[in-house]
Design goal:
- 58% of the residues lie in helices and 14% in strands.
- It contains 17 helices and eleven strands.
- The protein has helices at residues 2-5, 10-17, 24-48, 70-82, 86-90, 95-107, 112-128, 131-141, 164-167, 263-299, 311-341, 350-380, 391-402, 409-423, 425-436, 440-453, 457-484; strands at 52-56, 62-67, 151-154, 171-175, 178-189, 195-202, 213-218, 228-233, 244-257, 301-302, 305-306.
- The model has no long low-confidence stretch (mean pLDDT 97).
- The chain binds flavin-adenine dinucleotide.
Length: 485
């Protein structure tokens, strides 16, 4: 049973997988805070449902405030103070950030979202912002106290999030030293963030993704009035610790990031940071679901003994722990690669394309794994699992969102195919995996991937999922051996 014990603590699991962990005392303190205070707050926020939007103050002035219990801010600010965003830039490494995200997501995968989108905002600004924008906006995003600003990343419009080239209708018009944006964002998480990065099409730019650019949009105009408006908040099944709304941009003051004609690369970079975070959060959620199932299985008795002591259930736990390790290895490989190539700008290196492939595999597989683990954990709880008053039900609700945002499984599979076909990223990945263990299964899969890539476009897409899934699982299994060393 000692083997399964590590499921109970996110830090114990991380320590069992990674040879070195930077800032261990910070992570220990973070875990303690969640155990003593965070869990209680997070549970209450989730059960309270959609937060409340107060659009006007008593004098009738538009304010668009979101009302949360005061403890919400305590929970949210905890991660910022610990360094989930500022460490990435100050220490020039993403490892501390994603380690913190793993820890936090074990307790509340929703609160990982504000951290992720704030990170995406800060990194884009640091990489592509003009000197003036950086001087004005970067320091508040990197503050270490409760006055820290938050970021947001808004691309999706009513026409859909998968096909941004066709669906982004927000228009950007140049105006003296800045831009004015007009349009509507349909899924906008962290709706009251002080600063958002927003996809828009400069007037006269070509159609499709090539005509998109990325802009910084502050919450307030230079004159102090609201620069963007919240039309309404989404009533979601999960991630209630992040307010997601619909945003109206009406001649909103904005600042261009990078060059207007290469915005799509910047947008994809933001999405990639989020996909890696999504993968880390998915594995943490899966661990949490298994930990809760374990705690229940140790108390519940059936047929004269604890259900954990029945051979079938115990075997299932052991298999799930192995799959958790494999999923973690895949997610962590995407972290490691991003840490290595994250500051590259287009045109990217071969290594960057391998990162992209691993990130698509990880986003796809870890989210699927989180959903299946949450469903299985619910089953272990029997009938109690479906009741809103216990936690197993929450993990399934949260997991469903992880599989959709930052691009559904279809998107990951198709983008993964693209990077294999156009950049041959799979060849480098296979060479790396063979260096860990050259198995027959690996060689067979390599031939199957090549066969898939040679098919006619329609057939290739139709048959892609089975091969992509095998590639994700086998990569995770191989990488898991590497992380054990
Ligand atoms: C809680 C939550 C918060 C969110 N927050 C944000 C945010 O802050 N910022 C932001 O920009 N977005 C956000 N999103 C939006 C999210 O990124 C999109 O939901 C996601 O990208 C999918 O887009 P869609 O919902 O419009 O589905 P669609 O793009 O309409 O797709 C519908 C279905 O069709 C499938 N599909 C599409 N194209 C293909 C194809 N070629 N082949 C096969 N299947 C295909 C999709 O995979 C999906 O299953 C959020 C979403 C949720 C649920």
């Amino acid at each position: 049973m000692a083997l399964l014990d590590m499921l109970r603590s996110p830090l114990a699991f991380l320590e069992s997988r990674l040879p070195t962990i930077p800032h261990l005392p910070v992570l220990r303190a973070e875990q303690e805070w969640w155990k003593t205070d965070g869990v209680r707050i997070s549970d209450a926020i989730d059960r309270a449902g959609t937060p409340w939007l107060r659009m006007f103050d008593p004098s009738g002035r538009r304010t668009d405030e979101i009302l949360y219990p005061p403890e919400y801010q305590t929970m949210l600010r905890q991660g910022y103070r610990s360094g989930v965003v500022w460490r990435a830039l100050e220490e020039n490494s993403l490892l501390p950030t994603y380690l913190l995200m793993y820890l936090v997501s074990f307790y509340d995968p929703g609160v990982c979202c504000p951290y992720t989108v704030s990170l995406g905002t800060a990194v884009s600004l640091a990489k592509y912002g003009g000197v003036e924008s950086q001087a004005r906006f970067l320091p508040p995003l990197l503050r270490k106290d409760n006055s820290v600003w938050q970021g947001a990343t808004w691309m999706t419009e009513i026409g859909g999030g998968s096909d941004l080239g066709a669906s982004v209708r927000t228009i950007a018009r140049p105006s003296s030293d800045s831009w004015l944006l007009t349009g509507d964002k349909y899924f906008a998480s962290n709706a009251t963030a002080e600063l958002a990065v927003v996809a828009a099409r400069p007037e006269g730019a070509p159609p499709g993704v090539r005509g998109l650019a990325l802009f910084l949009v502050p919450r307030y105009r230079d004159d102090g009035s609201l620069n963007r408006f919240i039309r309404r908040l989404k009533d979601k099944i999960g991630t209630r610790s992040v307010p997601t709304g619909e945003i109206e941009l009406r001649d909103s003051e904005a600042y261009l990031l990078g060059r207007a004609d290469s915005g799509i690369y910047l947008i994809l970079e933001v999405l990639n940071l989020s996909r890696v975070a999504n993968s880390v959060a998915s594995v943490a959620l899966a661990q949490r679901a298994l930990a809760d199932a374990l705690a229940y299985a140790e108390c519940r008795t059936a047929f004269g003994k604890r259900i954990i002591d029945h051979a079938l259930l115990r075997h299932q736990f052991e298999v799930r722990l192995e799959s958790l390790r494999s999923a973690f290895a895949l997610a962590w490989e995407s972290v490691r690669l991003l840490d290595e190539v994250g500051m590259e700008r287009p045109p990217y290196s071969e290594r960057y394309h391998v990162f992209r492939l691993v990130a698509h595999l990880a986003k796809y597989w870890t989210a699927e794994f989180a959903v299946s683990s949450a469903k299985w954990a619910m089953e272990v709880h029997g009938g109690l699992g479906v009741l809103g008053e216990y936690e197993a039900e929450r993990w399934l609700r949260e997991a469903m969102i992880l599989a959709i945002w930052e691009g559904t499984s279809h998107r990951q599979i198709l983008d993964g195919l693209e990077v294999m076909e156009r950049k041959q990223a799979h060849k480098t990945l296979f060479a790396q995996l063979a260096g860990i263990a050259r198995t027959e299964e690996l060689q067979e899969l390599e031939s199957d991937v090549q066969r898939l890539l040679n098919l006619r476009p329609d057939h290739k897409e139709a048959e892609a999922e089975a091969v992509f899934r095998r590639l994700a699982i086998l990569s995770g299994d191989h990488l898991s051996r590497k992380y054990l060393q």
